[in-house]
UniProtKB/TrEMBL annotation:
It comes from Sphingobacterium kitahiroshimense. PROSITE patterns: TONB_DEPENDENT_REC_3 (PS52016). Its main location: membrane. It is a multi-pass membrane protein. It comes from the Bacteria. This is TonB-dependent receptor.
Amino acid sequence: MTIKVKTEKDLPIAGATVRLNQQLLGSTDTAGVLITTNEKIANQKISVSAIGFKEKTLSLSNKPSNNLISITLLASTNVLDEIVVTAGRKPESISTIPSSITILNQQDIQAQTNITNNLATVLGNAIPGLGTSTNKATNSGQTLRGRAVLVLIDGIPQSTPLMNGARDLRTIDPSVIERIEVIKGATSIYGNGSGGGIINYITKKNKDGKKISGQTILGTSINPFDPKETLGYKLSQQLSGQVNKWSYTVSGSADYTGLQRDSDGLPLGQTDGLSNSYQYNGFIKIGYQIDSSSTLTGFYNYYGSTQRAKYISKNGIYGQSPTIGVKGEEPGKPAGTPYNHNAMLTYSKSNLFHSTQLDVTAYLNSFSSMNRYVASGTAWYGPGQTMINSEKKGLRLNLNTPFQLFSISTEVTYGLDLLKDVTYQDLTDGRVYIPKMNMVNFAPYAQVKADLIENLIFKAGLRYENATVKVNDYNTIATGPNGEGSIVVSGGNIPYKATMFNAGLRYTKYDYFNPFVSFSQAFAINELGRILRRAKENTIGNLETDPIITNNYEAGFSSRFSIFNISASYYISTSDLGVNLVDVGGFLMPQREPEEVKGYEVTLDAQLSQKLSVGGSYAYVEGKAKMDDGSKIYLNGSRIAPPKATGFLSYKPNQQLNLQLFWIHTGGRDRFALNDKGKYNNSEGPISNVDLFNLSGNYNLNKNWKIGFGIENIFNTSYYPTVSQYRALDAEYVKGSGTVTSLNLHYQF
């Protein structure tokens, strides 16, 4: 008996689950077909379900004469049924996952990139719980729920948790991103560095079946009030298609950011700035349909973004006057991300055994982060410029097997992650700042999902981390002439072993109240480089290099009724050993104390009419560390963002025009006292309220041509980004950008 499942457009639906009288028969292959030997079809009920489609049940009175049953599924219109692959390494509906999740779809990304092409700003403006953008080339301080976030591209790790370069949010051009999935709270599903959650950029792939289609984007941006030298541009070309068993997507883009000026027209300070920066991206993804149940997919992405500044910083005075840019040339090499290479090859096979889905992935990431030149280093002798280098090679084996257990629909996702991560930091003159940290990680895992009773979904899992970091003998960098202050450190192996656990429940019966509770853990070898570079002991074994084990407790719900969509969650995140970077002698060092971070998030939107919708969010987070004497101190601004509220108003008067007004509010926070020198320690400065408004719009000229336009900081508000305020340093007391207008012309064929 052959069962074929398809869409309304006669396209096959792969991975559809087929049940006979609630007993699992199997899943369809990539051709949308399931062949079963079960002949007892007459007078039975067949149920078919697939992610993104409405479930369908057929009552068959007679056995089909041609042994073929064709079933058409309708696309789901429920906004809660968006698909996410990151949470469990397989396609799942958000409404069934016991976690807080935010998805930015293609429309969301385009609306935000009409305003700015900076992904750090896009995410900071749109994701509740994530810190707002620094308006710089780095995303320092943009934590998620007060902890480090692991950034991925199609599952490939971009973050460098062994030594955080804070450039991982800007590692790909938005034009090649299909959607962005954000899984909040501790999670071990992808390993090292996800104490606050995961941000996964899912890249585009060909879907329309045409032999060739494409999109061309030409864009420009300018400060309308003080336009001199502020002109920027963007060019992007994308081609995709399908020929026989092959599919492809190819894209290239170039982006230039002109001089950034504040609301008074003054050039912004250039410390890690974006003025006069160039961004390039090259992308190719190729798929091959081996047979009806097997596919091979490969992709490569190059990203580079460096600043060729025409201005240098003239320091202001913290709390009094801003650091501004003045004409001049910065010594050293251009700062930014000279290169970020990602390559991946995936083999997938459905119905391997008992409807098992197999995915085997090999990947490579090679990443370089160039810090700015400093005339006089605080951590080393003389001038210098450092570069963080990281190379990751990984292999992922992932399987998913559905089965019936005592009449309970169950599935298990299981597999193995292998990762080799080599990270180090040198000065461009050859001096070693952080020695090579060679990590090898072996991590088996298993996740179970079961429908305990109707509409009650249970998920639980284990992951065993078995990692070793090898460090050769090295000398800490000299702090004075002739090697003064350097310490000889004997290297060795640092072993890390830990078992991570997660469990959660979600009740899905009612759209108007879809609650969940969960417990999850995460593992991180975070900021090991900072510990090694400031070693005071002469052997690795004497350094405090223990991992961070984060425990996340969370309860929340989503709700959809009438014209409203609501979601809310409350969480508590604890760790026996945290990493709070504190000011020690003028540089930041990790403080390893027990920590507790807690907070809540609320989102609400309403479809007031076919033309008008409104919505917003509010996120609050607070964190403290417990000292040896039992006292508790606040975690500083590098970890804990101030309260953030967002709002939007969307107006679509007709099929041609769509307008969206966005509001972003960051609240005040004042937690720390002046030190004995009458100044604030690094990252302990007070934060004042900031309110910004942005506008995005699209106008469809015809089926091929479209104009996108945006205004960032509509009212030319004078403000300091939160990082400029809490860092409490003269050089980094830089204002935010004034008004910038953007215009983009899109051509699709």
